[in-house]
Amino acid sequence: MDIVLDSSSIINLINGEVFYSIFSLKNFYFKIGPLVKEECEKHNELDDAIAKELLELLPDVSLQQFKLLKGKYNLGDGETECIINCMNNFSFYLSCDDSKARRDAAKEVSEERVKGTLFLLREMRIQNLLDCDGTIDRLQLMKSKGGFLPNKGKAYFCK
């Protein structure tokens, strides 16, 4: 599964101390665009992950397409870039934790292709990269550091 990460997901993953753990997910390939990278410039983890070829840096999106989508939804630059990358690549899924951006992305690429950090945490649990309590601890850590994430418990993560 090809996942385009938005800055909201990246920041939550870093804050939850699981950013590097996502790269151990089997059959998952992570990508970011230049605008998202710029939004997260204070996080050295991105440059490190790109240098280690764990994270793919995508090319710039079309300026015309960017202006059209930005005008349509009035989202942030990184969110707009992520949606365009998913629109242009039908195998790409979006990981975003901003509720408005998720709703707007679903209109453009389908709800099925819009994911978030909780999906990635659950996948880490399913693939035994985290145990049940560890998954919930990571979520609580993200929230304690400012992540606006829904309350999910063992029923969601630990089936």
TrEMBL record:
Show the taxonomic lineage.
Bacteria, Pseudomonadati, Bacteroidota, Cytophagia, Cytophagales
Protein known as: Uncharacterized protein
Please name the InterPro entries in this protein's record. PIN-like_prokaryotic
Q: Which domain of life is it from?
A: Bacteria
Pfam families attached to this UniProt entry: DUF3368
The record lists the organism as Xanthocytophaga agilis
